[in-house]
Amino acid sequence: MSSLPKTMKAVLIEKTGGTEVLEYKTDFPMPELKEGEVLVKNEFIGINYIDTYFRTGLYPLPHTPYILGREGSGTIAAVGPNAPFDLKVGTRVVYMGSYAYAEYTPVASKYTIPIPDSIPTKIAAASCLQALTALTLIREAHKVEKGDWVLVTAAAGGVGLWLCQLLKAIGARTIATASTPEKRDLAKQNGAEVLLEYHEGDQETFVKKVKEITGGEGVAAVFDSVGKSTFDASLGVVARKGTMVSFGNASGPVTGFALGRLAANNVKLVRPTLFNYIYTREEFQQYAAELWNFIEKDKLNVQIHDVYALHDIVRATEDIEGRKTTGKLLLQP
Ligand code: NDP
């Protein structure tokens, strides 16, 4: 680590709260590597809605000060003891982990993989956590089959656009919701077949519409990331023996759910996280390879909303939380 600087740029929080707790520092101490870790010099850092949950305290902070951010891409600047042989200084990699909102990030090697030559570093960062979430959801939370009807909420967001494209690629039929006509158009351009407005306050009409579209059956699966404000209506459109996949809390967490409600249609309820689907390095590599294959063969569109400077973190965060964005937001240190 001798040629590395002693300090680096980073965005950290000392306490939970609004965007005012985000602190941009230029003199944060360089991290030290532990066994099996590599140090990545970030070129692109991905913003994800989960960063908001940590900053606001919805998900507990492991410690303070805490550097937010869970994914990035760049090159390996140093290798800790017992890192795998394919991770060498200079290797171009993409990773998932913690402490990504920084110039350098220490990452467990099982969550760090080399980027194929055909994938630019920027595209790798923009097609990691959100894209892998979409892919694992349609493979494992509910294995979607060709011809299945599914419902996707927040369909023009980061995960949402990946879901629309991947579902189209496997021949499923997507009903999608998003908050504005522009976002709904974008979801349609990315593979959704039927676009609907949100149903807050009028669940009955929404359920009726989805039932009409699906010949009275309802959908085989719902992929709901909005949480509190959409959960009830989403559950109401799941077909008999279908799956309600609740994987996010953008409008707040779902609480007070009565299990007996699932009996009405023998619905399976799943609340998954990506990190439990790609727990091992082999799982990460396998899903990343499958994703990159989709991107290349099916010409998937890696939709990048904007690339912000790391010091512009407050504006970037306000944009995603203010529902002003579509697709992926990236940071550059
Ligand atoms: P997005 O780019 O999708 O941004 C969030 C979107 O949520 C907004 O664009 C907005 O779209 C919608 N939304 C609905 N209600 C609200 C609200 N009250 N406040 C703000 N936004 C709202 O983010 P990501 O792609 O990063 O994440 C999407 C969801 O998936 C999040 O809930 C996230 O937590 C979840 N997720 C879960 C993972 C897991 O492992 N379980 C992994 C990755 C993401 P619109 O305006 O159209 O409603």
UniProtKB/TrEMBL annotation:
Q: Name one GO molecular function term.
A: NADPH binding
**Which UniProt keywords are listed?**
NADP, Oxidoreductase
Q: SUPFAM superfamilies, alphabetically? A: GroES-like, NAD(P)-binding Rossmann-fold domains
One GO cellular-component annotation of the UniProt record comes to: cytosol
- The source's superkingdom equals Eukaryota
* Record bears the keyword Oxidoreductase: yes
Domain named Enoyl reductase (ER) is located at 17-331
InterPro entries on file: ADH-like_C, ADH-like_N, ER, GroES-like_sf, NAD(P)-bd_dom_sf, QOR-like, Quin_OxRdtase/zeta-crystal_CS
The protein in question is named: Probable quinone oxidoreductase
